[in-house]
Amino acid sequence: MISLVIPAYNEERYLPRLLDSVDVARRRYEAQGGALEVIVADNGSTDGTARVAAARGCRVVPVTPRNIGAVRNGGARAARGDLVAWVDADHRIHPDTFVVVDALLRDPRIIGGTSGATMERWSLGIRVTYAVLVVASWVAGIDTGVVFCRTADFTACGGYDERYRAAEDVMFLLALKRLGRPRRQRVVRARGIKVVWSTRKFDEYGDWHYFRLLLPGLKLLLGPPKLGGFLERYWYGSKR
Fold this sequence. Notes:
Elements: E1 2-8, H1 15-30, E2 36-42, H2 49-55, E3 59-62, H3 68-77, E4 83-86, H4 97-105, E5 110-114, E6 117-119, H5 124-140, E7 147-150, H6 151-156, H7 168-180, E8 186-189, E9 195-197, H8 200-205, H9 214-218, H10 230-236
Parallel strand pairs: 1-2, 1-4, 2-3, 5-8, 6-9
Antiparallel strand pairs: 4-7, 5-7
């Protein structure tokens, strides 16, 4: 069984369209004998997020700390599947997501991976941003989108580092790579199952705004960043 964890804070607007895409992928996976549980890790939402999730058959797991790493961890620790995956609430997943994840994690040479992502709309600023992120992902050997691994390996690598209030997904994938290295296992980019990545941050902050995040991103090399001002609003404002 795959446990899909969806971190959520005030996602009443976006969650239904993600769950619509999950339902399509679930049917395709179950037709091949797989099973899926969907966990919505609710980080104290004040809107109808929990109600929407419960009405759609999701397990709602309340997580108190206002910290995205803690939310991802809280959902995964409640997982009953032997495989675990995470996707943000404003994404939409590919219909073959769970079939491909299952197939990849049957290979003992693979410790985990990502789906990659494409954008729901394009502009010059978004295209340039996307190109920069593609180069960065190739250099680091990791990507974004749906993140997946075996539940046992999530535990073994310590889960998401909650000291990182941003870029926790990057640090988790690097931890998976370290765990897999002595086993000769690798983190992979799945082919053909990219998520559709919401551009709501670009809609709110402008199509070139991501370049304001580059310097703080480089500071990750020195340790967990201290958020404040723009970064605090960006990651933990009205939505996160």
